[in-house]
Specification:
Blueprint: E1 2-4, H1 15-29, E2 35-37, H2 38-45, H3 49-57, E3 65-66, E4 72-75, H4 78-90, H5 95-103, H6 107-137, E5 145-149, E6 152-162, H7 167-179, E7 187-193, E8 197-206, E9 218-224, E10 227-232, E11 246-249, E12 252-255, E13 258-261
Antiparallel strand pairs: 1-10, 1-13, 2-4, 3-4, 5-10, 6-8, 6-9, 7-8, 7-13, 11-12
Amino acid sequence: MGRGACPFGSFFLDLQVTLSCTMELTVRGAGMSKFMSIQEFSDCTGISKSPIRYYESVNLLSYVTRDSSGYRVYSKGQVETINVITSLRLADVPIKDIQAHLNETDEQLRNEMVNFWVQSIKERLNVLSVGLQYLESDKELEQIYLVEKSPETIIWFAAQSKVGQFKEPMNEKIKELKSLGVPIKSCYLKYLSGRNVIKAHIGFIVSESIDAAEIKGCIDMEQMPAALCLALPFSGPFSSIQSGFTLNFHGKLLVIAIYEIHDPS
């Protein structure tokens, strides 16, 4: 089974839009009094009264006091706070994380929170990219589908063989691992290079408790995280596996780097 990694795009912020927004906030902020009603606070920040009240209800923001008529009033210093809150919410940061970020005084811990959010968004973008490619593939190749992979521990061995002749070294390793009492769940063939003579890595899904140092010829023990993958079934014999190394996908030639093999016999 082939699995391909899916890149995600880069995003750019138009400079003119950035300058326009900055200037607008500066003009809005000019001439502010020390305290503002909720309407004035909304006009100043460009944020409607409804989300301001919501941020109060979830303890992200609080009014400073109430005026003589009992209405909430806000301070000039809260303008920056609510802009940060709104920006983080638009970036899909959870409410509880924003609360922790606002309450944290240690700058290093605040930076660690931001780095965590960045990584989370990158992971979601990757998943969305895979999903988009899957939906687009329906027009050209119905056999492509999505596979949700659980975390796996894989031990890798170097191998070299002619096309279609990896069954023998793979079975030899399976016998060797079984003789050591290592249960095998399934195996992988990772293409590295070559056309007629193929350099590859063969991998086996094993228990996390395995000590790779005790296994002869093991070149790496990889902890593969959970992932959403595009998959393409290959049901032909090993002798014709070369035909599955590449895939014409929407006019682009994709290289299938990893095959998951459930029955190498």
